[in-house]
Each structure stands twice: as structure tokens, then as C-alpha cells.
Amino acid sequence: MPLSQADAHLDHLSSCSPCYQDFLRLQADYRRRRARMIFAVAASVLIVAGITTWVAIQHHSGLQVARSAIVDLRDRSTPRGTQTPPDESPVEIGSKVSRLEIYLPIGTSDGAYEFRVTTQNGDVLVSGTGIAKIEPGTTLLEVDASLSSVTPGLYVLQLRKVGSEWSSYALRIR
Ligand SMILES: [Zn+2]
Predict the structure, then answer these.
(1) What's the CA-to-centroid distance between 27 and ligand 1, angstroms?
(2) How far apart are CA 132 and CA 111, in angstroms?
(3) Residues linked to residue 139 through DSSP beta bridges, in sequence order
(4) CB 3.0-4.6 Å disulfide test: which of 19, 25, 103, 123 passes with 119?
């Protein structure tokens, strides 16, 4: 009730003890209900915040673990051609990867690169492009490439700067 309407009752309340007791009891009820409401709203906010944080952490760790793979070719030579050198150990990548961070051999120039995964007979299974960037001590090529359709086994990872010759590396997909 707005204060302007309550005005008519205030005189009576201040002189009648039973009505004043009723008023105090109703006021206490109202405060208790309001406190319970505030508590419920605060609890809901905490629960929603907790669930949101949990989902974000799950999502984030999922991306980090399953999606991105590092291919380190820094200590390797740059083998020209589409044949892999016979005695190099294969680069290993998991098949649940959708993005490769390829550290190119030391001294590799930056720019636009092509990337592909072929069978050992030369059939192209996956291909893509990316821009290699010079970073301190290395040249980094990031490519989006889903390997989920490739069955585990031995393949060939081929890279070339656009317009140049392919370099080939033995690749094991796990
Ligand atoms: Zn009264």
C-alpha cells in the first residue's frame, strides 16, 4: 500500500495495540519472505555461474587436448621432392586433430604455403594452405586440417612454399 493511502490508518495504528501487533507481525512476515527471495536469487546466480564456469573449462581443455597438434621440423633438413628420405623417423600426429602448428626447418622463409597428406603411393588425402610467419628462432606455419577421416598408419606429409618444390616427411597418424 502506498504511503498516501496508509495515511488514513496511521492514526488508528498508533493508538490501538492489537492492530499495531498485527502490523508488526505482517511486517516481520514480509521481511522474512523478502530475505528468502533474495537468498533464492543469489543461490540461482551462483549455480548458473558455477555451471557456466564448468562448461567453459571443459570446452577449453577439450580444445587444447584434442584439436591442435605441434609438428616440429626445426631439427630436420628440407628434403626436396615427393619421396621421403629413407632413414628419417616419422612425424607423429593424432587423428583427432583439426589444426596443425608446424615449426618449419630452421632458415625456412615465410609466406604462403601449401600442405597435404598423401598415402605412400602419392594419393592426396588432405590438403590445405596457410601463411608461415617468422617467429623468434623459428618459422611457424599454422594450417586448419582435419585428419579424422584418415585411418591410423604411415603417410607422407608434404609442404611447399607456393610456386616452389614439395618437401616430404614421413608421417605416422595415430
Ligand atoms: Zn484497532
Answers:
(1) 16
(2) 5
(3) 104, 134
(4) 123
| 151 C-alpha to ligand 1 centroid (Å) | 87
Co-location of 165 and 80 in the same domain: yes
The three-class DSSP label of residue 163 is coil
Ligand 1 ion: Cβ-proximal residues, 5 Å cutoff = 16, 19
Q: How far is the CA of 14 from the centre of ligand 1 (A)?
A: 9
**Are 76 and 155 in a shared domain?**
yes
Q: How close is the Cα of 99 to the center of ligand 1, in Å?
A: 79
Question: What is the extent of the structural domain holding 83?
Answer: 68-173
Q: Kindly give the distance from the C-alpha atom of residue 33 to the centroid of ligand 1, in angstroms, as a whole number.
A: 25
How far is the C-alpha of 132 from the C-alpha of 109, rounded, in Å? Answer: 8
**Strand partners for 91:** 171
Please write the tens of the pLDDT for every residue from 51-108. 999 998 887 765 555 478 899 998 887 778 877 777 778 899 988 888 899 999 988 8
Grid look-up 536469487 returns 41
Cα–Cα distance measured from residue 146 to residue 163, given in angstroms and rounded to the nearest whole number: 24
CATH number assigned to the domain comprising residue 155: 2.60.40
